[in-house]
Amino acid sequence: MDPFKKKLAQPVVSTWSSNVKQMLQASDDPKDFHDTLVAMLQSNGERYQFAVSLIQEGWETTVSKHQNNWVNMGVVGALILSVLFSAMNQPFAKSPADDMWRELRDFFEKALVVLIYLSTTFGLVAVILSITLLVHMSFFVHDPDDLLYFMLVHTGSFVDLSLIFCLVCFGISVPMAAVVTLEDPTMLITFVPVAIILLGVLGFYLRSLYLLSRREKAKATPSHKQSFVQIVADAYAQIQLENGVTEEPTGEGKVVEVVSPNRADELHESSM
């Protein structure tokens, strides 16, 4: 049995329906909101994941979650930026030791400078983008319609990528700094464990990213998507029936005209 169908039998689905109804009631154009949300549910990647998160958590919780994420990433980027800016102003002193690493130190010294500048730039970009997204969201997102449009405009994870590149460049520069500033055997004792630890952390990150991405793709089956589309369609139909003559969406995002019972009586009396 599909695990999602088991989940549908639980009361949590009523919470999801309630979240969708609340968003439709707060929307300036419920039909347009419905169509946009259904289109996102039928897509893949970040848009689909955002639409599912919106249904499960509600739009206000989703706004708060994104704001917290951007604040956290901005703070991390600012901390790294402060450390790297100090390194830019106080270059590493190259070791004068005449050992087996002497010929490589000139190359590593130049590469270290490049990595520090790249890491600083990516850290600055992460901070700027975090502040920009926070300010724009607080200024322009006031209802579910604004939130959908905002997330459609900002579909890329540029803050995440900037911070990741910043950390990768920063991580590579650490063992390089050991080669430039230290001499044998201290350099070798430092370089080997530092490089192994950083490679292990990178492997852990890539493994986690791969497994979680594969799970997300496995969950995004046609039946899974259709179940969410049906939740949105049912909530839209209920809202429209409460308001009289309406257009009720089908499970595939199409619409057919329906008339509420009270409104049908009024139409019948007016035709007599």
What does this structure look like?
The chain crosses the membrane at residues 70-92, 112-135, 147-174, 186-206. Keywords: Membrane, Transmembrane, Transmembrane helix. This is PGG domain-containing protein. The structure is a single chain. The chain has one domain. β1 (246-249) and β2 (255-258) form a beta hairpin. With 272 residues, it is mostly helical. The chain has 11 helices and 2 strands, in the order ααααααααααββα.
Entry summary:
The chain crosses the membrane at residues 70-92, 112-135, 147-174, 186-206. The chain has 272 residues and is an all-alpha fold.
Q: Would you spell out the secondary-structure blueprint of this structure?
A:
Blueprint: H1 3-8, H2 12-26, H3 30-41, H4 46-57, H5 59-89, H6 102-140, H7 144-153, H8 158-181, H9 186-219, H10 222-242, E1 246-249, E2 255-258, H11 261-271
Antiparallel strand pairs: 1-2
Name the descriptors:
79% helix, elongated, PGG domain-containing protein, transmembrane, transmembrane helix, membrane
Task: Report the helical percentage.
Answer: over 70%
User: Which H/E pattern describes the elements?
Assistant: HHHHHHHHHHEEH
In the sheet with the most strands, the strands line up as 1-2
The beta-strand count equals: 2
Question: Gap between N and C termini, in Å?
Answer: 53 Å
Count of discrete alpha- or pi-helical segments spanning 4 or more residues: 11
Largest sheet: 2 strands, antiparallel
Number of domains: 1
Strand content: under 5%
- Low-confidence runs of at least 5 consecutive residues: 248-272
Keywords: Membrane, Transmembrane, Transmembrane helix
Organism: Symbiodinium natans
Protein name: PGG domain-containing protein
